[in-house]
Amino acid sequence: GDEVNIDVDLNEQLKSMSKDRPHNLKNAHILSGITKCSLSLLNQMNAIYSDQNSAQVDYEDMLSSAAESTRIISIVNPDIHVMEIDTIDHLAIAKTILPEIKQHNLINHHERKYLLNPGPATISDRVKLAQVIPDICPREMEFNGVVSEIKGAIESMASSKAEDVTAVLFSGSGTASVESMISSTVHGHDHLLIVNQGAYGERMVQIAKVHQLPFTEYKPDPLIKLNLDELDKMIDQNGITHLALVHHETTTGLLNNLNDISVIIKKYNLTFCLDAMSSFGAVTIDMAKHHIHFCAASSNKNIQGTAGIGFVISDRAALNKIKTAPKRTVYLDLYNQYHYSHANHQFQFTPPVQTIYALREALRELIQEGIDKRYHRYQTLWKQLHSCMDRHGFSHLISPEDHGYLITAYLVPDDSSFSFNHFHDYLYRHHITVYPGKIGALNTFRMATIGSLRSVDMDLICEKISAYFKTHPLHSTT
Prior knowledge:
Oligomer: single chain
Largest sheet: 7 strands, mixed
Number of strands: 18
Distance between the termini: 44 Å
Helix content: 25-40%
């Protein structure tokens, strides 16, 4: 009864404040504090106060009066609980929400954030809290058991013949595992074909250049599925022995069909190196069925762990073939890392210990949910988001049959007044993160539908997006 209720407009500007309770409590915004007050606003409030007949005036009244001529921003945070405890009944209510407050207080950042960037993804409190552990040396047997569980889970997810593959973990981002995979597997008279369909295919090209690998770059149209006849021709004419491909190109959202590509791999007996960074953990991958010899992925994105661990899953027979190959790096040599960790499940070099515990918990979550069900949840989130974006005039670049429904590049119409930076900053103030595009001259931005998000979260996200376009339509009318 003594809380201050705030009324804001669609531009997040303060309209009024009152101690009268609104009829719809769902939409009630309660004042929890003032973050920043400029000197000019303070002077304006003081001037308004000086004109009052009574000295018994609340500062909320002064702010409301000042808001008639001054832009005062109200930041809405639905994750903060605010109430005053004046009575025994109030105390009883407060005790019911105290457990949730205590859980929030175990984590440094209380706010619920919604990451629609391609990764790292939104993670659960369960994964966050898994990092709060007693200090431990990563050479202890207890820690080795954690690593062993992680490797076993990854291997089971990667192949229907898990006994034929082995996972090697690296401290680093996903690019570390891709660089290990590319630089460790191409030697001597090998000839690598890199399919470049976007920024992450381009990254493999950069890796091949730095390590001076014998390679050919194939740049098909990045917005349509691979032309298999062209791919077959490239392999046949260039004496290709290795193929490197991004399964799901996060530049656009294009998902390559592994069933079709595996036919060509088998036809030419190629060594297949797959970047599955943004597909592993959502899209089913079977290294045995798809003739994949090396597969790189990471702890974040669809696995929904914290960033910091990359890994390469290797076919054991293919891995043994590079055993005696010349080493190009110390830290990222795939066979050396495998050989060191195989017997004792230790990292050769010091790992980020807490990140490992978070990864174990994230994998347990994934096993509990199931890969197919997780992908279905992501696709459901995509349908919600795309319905909203389509309603506001945006189209995406990839046709439905080639789309992964994990990350989407939206095209900004040439004749629109849309500003991505303004859109980004508005959503960021509401704890929602979106990401710029990476497709040459095309004006795009990207939105992912992965991570620990539910339909109710996407409802809130779409509500904020719609509120933005009510005041900032794609095509302004004059």
